[in-house]
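Lest this sound abstract, we think one record worth quoting, the chain in one-letter code, the fold tokenised, each line plainly labelled:

>
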Amino acid sequence: MSTATGSARTPRADDHRDDHAAARPEGRAAGPGEGRAEGRTAERTAPAGDRPATRRGTDSASPPAPGGRAPGAPGGETTDTSGGDTTGTTGRDAAPSRLRAALAGRPVLRRLLPLLAAAVVLIPVAAALWGSGGWPQQLAVDVRTPLDDAYDWVIDNRATNPVFLYFLLHLSNWAEISVDAVTVLLLQLGWFGVITAAVLLAWRVGGAGLRGLRTAGVALAAFAVCGVLDMWEATMETLALMAVAVTVSVAIGLLLGLAAGLSDRFDRFLRPVLDTMQIMPAFAYLLPLVLLFQIGVPAALIATVIYAVPPMARLTSLGLRGADQGVLEAVRSLGAGPVQRLLTARLPLARKEILLGLNQTIMMALSMVTIASVVGAGGLGEEVFSALSTVDVGSALAAGIPIVLLAVWLDRTTAVAGQRVAEGADHEATGARALLHGRRAWALVAAVFAVVVPLGRKFLIEEWPELWVVEIARPVNEAVQWFTAHLATGVPVVGGTRVWADGFTTGVLSPLRDGLQAMPWWSLVLVAAVLGLLAGGWKAMCTAAASLALIGVIGLWDKSLDTLSQAIAGVALTLVLGFAIGVVAARVGWVERALRPVLDVLQTLPQFIYLIPVVALFNVGRSAAVAAAVLYALPAVVRITVQGLKQVDAGTLEASRSLGASTFQQIRQVQLPLARPALMLALNQGVVLVLAMVVVGGFVGSGALGYDVVHGLQKSELGTGLAAGVAIVLLGVALDRATQRRATAA
């Protein structure tokens, strides 16, 4: 999903620029151009006793007060500018005064001091009661047995319970009928009718100019390749499921977004719900849905709706809350009521955000439809899943390419719609061009469709012609076999990709996992608390520590640390590559232009597709899962890094250049410090995305929590799968709070 079109994976770094000063922890050296202004502000606003003493040899804001007292010093006490003890302090109070003075110069230490004091008291007690090894069994609770009992109860009462008979059964039937109806419609239109409709829609959305022609060309190429690869029917099944899921998701998301945008109380209630919906791995809530609706389309459709609703709700709320207050006040002054203000001002002003939410909902739905193939959704996802199960890279690629092309078509079409809304394209058209805009253009599209499609059905067959099919599975598999034989192993000096994977597993992943599992449980909880406190304050500290502790309570401590080791390794690789590539792209224009289409493609790929190349390169195992996670998270890190570096003030860079700074010095001493908020955001996004993909790596042998989720889903073991899903959510929350700097950090 392209950042230019608004990706759910890639939050904008400039959204956090206003919080730059507030988000920077106390004691961090200010970037160029910040120190002097912030120093003056601190002297004006700091309490009297916290103002720094004037150093010798430096300019002071004001001369010393009579009697040797520094300006603002408490009466009766003088400040020794040489750095000695304050006069007027007794010997009994000298030590506390020195401690306060030391802490005043080290705000980070001052912030950590209460936590460290509590740790000194509590850690010996905890070690004496429960030991210092892995998570103590006395503090663990069995959650799998109650979940398995609930599964058995549902199976026994499905046919008699009124909830199933009068609600869930009707919901299941509606989902099945809706998707079947859309699928039949698409198949009856035939390949010519579907391509004609897609091209006309893309052209109308893009406009009458060159942009509209490019958008129509993308639609034509995408559907043509789907047919050439012999995936037409599977593509129509995926498109039908997506159409229904997106319609329902948009309707629900709009309602939730409206309520959250108009009510602060509902917004506070909704935010953690949406967070859970987005952090929870898709596989984790597929299992309870399969329990309620059984294997098939209904479970896949409802899972897709749950996964795709949050971006629509969030962006609708954001658009309503960000409406121009001057416009709203003008509408209110004209006597418009609340409903009139909503329809005539708030919603029109939020159109850009709502269209961006539609774009993200479509992308999320396509990604989830692919994942939902494991519960019988059919379509392209089932083709990919079946091929991966047999390590048939050629067939997986043949089904994966249409998924990518559908994503590109939908992304470009909705993105262009958002651009035209922002530009007001329909209102600017005059003269002959006005015939191709507004309602006239829609009427023209409908007329062409009504004439061309019946002609196509009369003279062309509905199914894609066999003569136009190209088989790529066999040559791709042959290429993979050649690669495995010549480059995966046995390469002189370098060894080969699978040798690298084995070395990475034995040299990095296994020692990191063993080291984490060997650490005392309380030390990891303390580390999470410290990182949360430094990043987001006391609330983030409590959340991070409690989330990590709850993982032990539900009995998944060791497996969670195994998953954490893979996430740490993946994040380290992602940050090294992402920061390096981002710095080069920010400094060299042609590199950024060359990377843009590559990043666009990587961000539109559904999660399953990343598993195809890594299986061919590294075989199954933990290294393959980490490699897929790096590919999945790298585009977001690169884009945020580039955006943050390019937003550094050009005047500051020019000043450093005039002082003789080299390119490396400018990057290290100017751009990176000033772009620190964006880099911290890139770190946070890298952590979240890597963790999400490591879980999907359970399909290629990553083990740990990912394996439990996949195993529980395939074997219908609710206790195993859902408990692992909850552990992943808790691990994600802990990592998010430990890495996401907030302006409220205290």
